[in-house]
Amino acid sequence: MLDEAEPAERLAADVADQLAGRSGTAASRRIFFVGQPLRHGPRPCHSEKVTANLSALLLQHYVDNFRTLPWRSPPGTPPPDPYRVWLSEVMLQQTTVATVRPRFERFVARWPTIEALAGASDEAILSEWAGLGYYARARNLIACARQVAARGSFPMTAAELRQLPGIGAYTSSAIAAIAFGERAAAVDTNVERVVARLHGLKQASRPEIERLTLALMPTDRPGDFVQAMMDLGATICRPRNPRCSDCPLNTGCTAFASGNPEAFPERRQRASRPHRHGIAWWIERSASVWLVRRPAKGILGGMAALPGTDWTAAPPQSVNALGTVRHVFTHFSLDLAIAPRAEPEGEGWWQPLDRLEEAGLPTLYRRAADLVLAARLAA
Q1: pLDDT (tens digit, 9 = 90+) per residue, 99-111?
Q2: From the CB of residue 22, how many other CB atoms can be counted at a distance below 10 Å?
Q3: C-alpha angle with apex 31: 33 to 198, nearest 5 degrees?
């Protein structure tokens, strides 16, 4: 294992030799700048020694600056419970750390083990998930928990983990590295940006980014490395206004050397979202509102909801709406008109308004209910 204090000192001395006109070491000749970036320099071609130095600098930065999160173990300590790693990674898909932290703590307080979660009802889990969005994740979470509980433990390799419901290439690699110490390249958008900037890649395929990530990854402490890369991309190597002067990898970074790090990688053009319309019926009786459960498959599958029409491209017929909620899903946006109706529609139940929170309404329908109740208070 490299002495983590040594690489920085050696690199500084070697680059000082270069600036003074001396040759420095073979590894240091791969480093093109310190402090002020060269505006037009060649792409660094990192030798094994320089790569090891950069890895050591990254790990030391992680030791000094790691984020304390309820699903993590401190750097250099035994790995965390695979259940907590898996649960956090599923929750963090398309959701911020700030949003996930309190919800994660509620989940593990209620279901502290994979066996406890596997034994819970679908309705209880979906209700607890309400507000996190991307509800297919919750359905996969349930299926995955039951498979793992049935087999007795989590698989220990990325290849095996990928066979479980809801676990793709990134999540399987993250769990394998963090929980089981496998040298697996966990590449999300943050890591992709770090690696692309380090190597000066305007565009790069996922296999190329994974190869370069593995080349940078040390043979020991793969879990710390994966989390260090995640933190670096989230807090320093940001899409806009990156904090390059604080980056432990800036001495080997082509994007920093270019003077325009935000140009790497090129931003992909996003396709415009189609827009849809629908009506949700507000059916109230004796201080209760009529709720239904959405079909198991599809958007908001299995979640509690207000009854209503299909969501279509054409606006619905004119109704005496109490208001409209606009909501953005991954692949489309929606205007949902909330309209009163007298009689219940579909199979459902009466939910007391003073216990509406217990129904676990997803954000769309919670906002619809809030709109109706707020309008009533204002009247």
Answers
A1: 999 999 999 999 9
A2: 9
A3: 90
Tell me the catalytic residues: 89
Q: What is the pLDDT of residues 242-266, one digit of tens each?
A: 999 999 999 999 999 999 999 999 9
The mean per-residue pLDDT over the stretch 71-97 comes to 96
Q: Print the SS3 string covering 56-112.
A: HHHHHHHHHHCCCCCCCCCCCCCCCCHHHHHHHHHHHCCCCHHHHHHHHHHHHHHCC
Mean predicted confidence (pLDDT) in 160-180: 98
CA distance 58 to 62: 6
Sketch out the chain's domains with CATH numbers.
275-378 (3.90.79.10)
At residue 360, the 3 state secondary structure works out as: coil
Helix, strand, coil fractions of the chain, as percent rounded to 5: 45, 10, 45
Neighbours of 339 (CB within 10 A): 19
Half-sphere exposure of 362 (CA within 13 A, CB side): 23
Contact assessment for residue 201 and residue 264, using Cβ atoms and an 8 Å cutoff: yes
Residue 327 DSSP SS3: strand
Rounded to 5 degrees, what angle do the CA atoms 313, 319, 321 make? 100
Supply the pLDDT for residue 378.
Answer: 82
The pTM of this model reads 0.78
Q: Parallel, antiparallel, or unpaired for β 275-282 and 333-340? A: parallel
